[in-house]
Amino acid sequence: MLGTALAIMLAAGVALAQPTLTIASWGGAYSQSQRLVYFDPFTKTTGIRIRDDEWDGSVARIQTMVERRQVTWDVVDVLTPHALQGCEEGWLERIDYGKLGGKAAFVEGAAMECAVGTAVYSTVYAYNADRFPGGGPTTAADFWDIRRFPGPRAMQKSPRTTLEFALIADGVPAREVYNVLATPAGVERAFRKLDRIKPYVKVWWTAGAQPVQLLASGEVAMSTAWNGRIYDAVKHHGKNFRIVWDGQAMDFDLWAIPKGSRQVGAATDFIAFASRPDIMSRQSAYLGYAPTTKAAMNKLPPDVLKDLPTAPQNSRNAYVMSARFWADHDQDLTERFNQWLARP
């Protein structure tokens, strides 16, 4: 009798000892896909519960947690500039790739020192095909062609991708965009090109859900957007939107662990689980983002691959966002961009 009671107590103790991980991500369809592909299966497999939170990309929030030693996030879905900055400034833990199959398991650029890629996404522009029954735009330059493709535009309220997009629309090959943007003349060229489209930009969006809402309501005819948001609107909500892949900016969403998390072991276990090829390859069908491990890429069926940024037909004139460039130039270019926006 005593042995049975002790066994029950020990079992209960093990259950109670299981940690709860708090994971911060971006919300919307993206976070929903993570719940379905990663969070719920991880809890079912390990018994470790996941509490999800949302953040807006402001690094000050993580920095404050770390400085005050009040870290409440165990894993954060970050972008490449966050990963680079957090590693250099010491507010992100270094990733133990020995538990993830080694860096060589990942596609180029996805295995950073303090963050590991979970998805390849892209900033593209999209349009509502109902607005262009005679045929829509096909190139980056067409976004600027108000005569052939009339209607208000929306663009992200950020110099990142916006300046690169302007240069590509002005004829700079995508593979050369950072060589040009790294020069004063290149920066001037980008802003001159933006001067031409500025009167037609009705909304400067700040949240990933906005482009879909703006296109669906008819408030704008075209918008820059994250490809996964457009994919979700088309595949799961029946919207008649089209993506223009020319000039797309490929980048990574990455898992990172804030310095000082009390659950580093469980957080690493979660990242290892999410990096398994059989798990990671499932997210693409939900959201149109590509996996970051080579083995997961090989598991994708053709009908899924065709809608991904990494598909050969979609990546002919694409570039990978440079975390180093934006780490070095973000402050200056953001200040100039905001001043440019404020001018009438």
Provide the fold topology:
Blueprint: H1 2-17, E1 20-25, H2 28-46, E2 49-54, H3 59-67, E3 75-79, H4 80-89, E4 111-112, E5 115-128, E6 153-156, H5 162-169, H6 177-181, H7 184-197, E7 201-205, H8 210-217, E8 222-226, H9 227-237, E9 241-256, H10 264-274, H11 277-280, H12 283-287, H13 294-297, H14 302-305, E10 319-320, H15 323-342
Parallel strand pairs: 1-2, 1-3, 6-7, 6-8, 9-10
Antiparallel strand pairs: 3-9, 4-5, 5-8, 5-9
Helix pairs in contact: 4-15, 5-7
Keywords:
alpha/beta; ten-stranded mixed β-sheet; D-Maltodextrin-Binding Protein, domain 2; 2 domains; 10 strands; 344 residues; 15 helices; single chain
CATH fold node name of the largest domain: D-Maltodextrin-Binding Protein, domain 2
Q: Any guess at the CATH architecture of the largest domain?
A: 3-Layer(aba) Sandwich
The portion of residues forming beta strands comes to: 15-25%
Give helix % range.
40-55%
Give the N-terminus to C-terminus distance in angstroms: 82 Å
Number of domains: 2
Main beta sheet: strand number and arrangement? Answer: 10 strands, mixed
**Tally of DSSP helical segments:** 15
Helix-strand sequence: HEHEHEHEEEHHHEHEHEHHHHHEH
Oligomer: single chain
Signal peptide: 1-17
Pfam family, one: SBP_bac_8
Protein name: Putative spermidine/putrescine transport system substrate-binding protein
Keywords: Signal
Describe this structure in words.
This protein is α/β, with parallel strands linked by helices. It folds into two domains: 20-120 and 252-306, D-Maltodextrin-Binding Protein, domain 2, CATH 3.40.190.10; 122-250 and 319-342, D-Maltodextrin-Binding Protein, domain 2. 43% of the residues lie in helices and 19% in strands. It is built from 15 helices and ten strands. The protein has helices at 2-17, 28-46, 59-67, 80-89, 162-169, 177-181, 184-197, 210-217, 227-237, 264-274, 277-280, 283-287, 294-297, 302-305, 323-342; strands at 20-25, 49-54, 75-79, 111-112, 115-128, 153-156, 201-205, 222-226, 241-256, 319-320. Strands 1, 2, 3, 4, 5, 6, 7, 8, 9 and 10 form a ten-stranded mixed β-sheet that branches. Helix 4 (80-89) packs across helix 15 (323-342) and helix 5 (162-169) crosses helix 7. The radius of gyration is 22 Å and the shape is globular. The chain starts with a helix and ends with a helix. The model is unreliable at 1-15 (pLDDT under 50).
